[in-house]
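The methods section describes the discrete structure representation at length, but only in general terms. Each protein is reduced to its one-letter sequence and a matching series of backbone shape codes. I believe one specimen quoted in the main text would settle the matter. An entry of this sort, consisting of the sequence and the corresponding backbone structure tokens, reads as follows.
***
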Amino acid sequence: MAGMILLGTEPKVGKTYISILLVQELKRLGCTPGYYKFAATGVRNLEQSEAALVSDACALDQELNEMIPYHYTVSEPVHLAARREQRFIKERVITERYAWNCATHNQMVVEGVGEIVSPLIMENNQVLFQEDLIFKLQLKIFLVIRMSASALSQSVLAVNYLKSISKSPAGIILNAYNDRNYAHRDSLDLIERCTQTPVIATVQKHQRRLSCRADLLSIINAPETGGFDSEA
């Protein structure tokens, strides 16, 4: 079973939309993918959550409460929402429900919480960061970056941080990319060169399918490596 997590470099980068497209692409490739998210905030009920959007768009057979174990009504970072509602995340619940999903799906697409650095518990007696779960669940990282004037800087900072914790991303997905725009094409080349990480797919505005630039299954199933040869 291969698990991957989509991490965004900024708010509203489009992780849920990319999750939908990635799950749909995996289904086209003959896989049985599932969707998972550790926690969600600003959600009144699961029927209005990201899980419901993905489930409806991809015709998934998962129960919503198995797709998102924790949800909070307030729109704050997870650790603050949990503190305000006095309903703290339990790591065991996260890992057990993830394992339950893995038993019936051969690929798991995990939508990251917040941005690259995201605390889930930040109390005096316990600290849990999203990256702790990424290591524990052995998730492969795909960075989701929205094409903008700051896309290069965001991608370099994100990749360098992930490399500093020994978790190099497997690939980058560019959202709001226009392949007819010379500046976008140049930015894509620079992002690959400066991060030594391949852009594995792009998504144009209102596009309903990933534009894959590499063999998606090979990247997902390959062992993690430390670099990327931009001259290859």
About this structure: The mean pLDDT is 93.
